[in-house]
Amino acid sequence: MNCIKLLGQSLMARDFDRQVAELQVRISVLNGYTAVGIPVTQPVE
């Protein structure tokens, strides 16, 4: 939750469905950052 709050303290949308969409966008952005930060390991032959 702390990382989600770093993208903004409050939701901008007023409608519930738009709030859900806004949170899904924030979560996808965080997942993208996490995917970039995961190291790719390869076995040494």
Secondary structure elements and pairings:
Elements: H1 2-6, H2 16-37
Concise structural overview:
This protein has 2 helices and no strands. It is an all-alpha fold.
Unreliable spans: none
How many helices does DSSP assign? 2
Helix content: 55-70%
Gross geometry: elongated
What fraction of residues sit in β-strands?
A: under 5%
Radius of gyration: 15 Å
**Structural class of the helix and strand makeup?**
mainly alpha
Task: Determine the mean pLDDT.
Answer: 80
Order of helices and strands: HH
Spatial gap, N to C terminus: 41 Å
Largest sheet composition: none
Tally of DSSP β-strands: 0
Written description of the protein model:
The model has no long low-confidence stretch (mean pLDDT 80). With 45 residues, this protein is mainly alpha-helical. The relative contact order is 0.14. It is elongated, with a radius of gyration of 15 Å.
Label this structure with key terms.
0% strand; 45 residues; Mobile element protein; 60% helix; 2 helices; mainly alpha
